[in-house]
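User: I'm curious whether this sequence folds into something compact or stays loose and floppy. Could you predict its structure so I can see for myself?
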Amino acid sequence: MLIKKPLFYATFYSLLVFIFSFYIVPLYIDGDQLHYRDFYKYCFYENLTPLQQFFCYEITLGTKEPGYFCVSKIAYPYLDKDMYITLANTVLTFVMTLAIFKYYKLVWHRHVFLILILMNYYFIVMLTSAERLKFSFIFLALALLINSNKRIIVFGLALLTHVQ
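Assistant: Here's the prediction. I'll summarize afterward.
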């Protein structure tokens, strides 16, 4: 069985980001993460209704975007906060790498471009503190990979995740 190069490299770069995130994310607890950690820790109590949970989300993060809330609510019973964000970083890198391989045709330049992106300050901020923006970029990269009419739905999900 032959593995396609874009899939191989997307897996490779995602594994690198997974390892980086696995060690860095638990150490990053101040700044924006203080509020995101409070949201993930306190807003999903079982005795709260979904509306009360969303109100807690609004108060804790100061935002009303339902996309990030819904994704976090789905992940909450299964993953702790650090593993949730580590996996999100991995998915972001995977779909971003696939999108770059789809649209960037010069072969060796792709890797230089990817390394520059992975080491870019704003990308590192997205990996560590800008969680809603990270999920919006995941949906945006997914929309770039889709060739059907469903692309507009995924673009809409990107907007619902981070509108600010």
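Summary: The chain is about 75% helix and 0% strand. The two ends are 45 Å apart (CA to CA).
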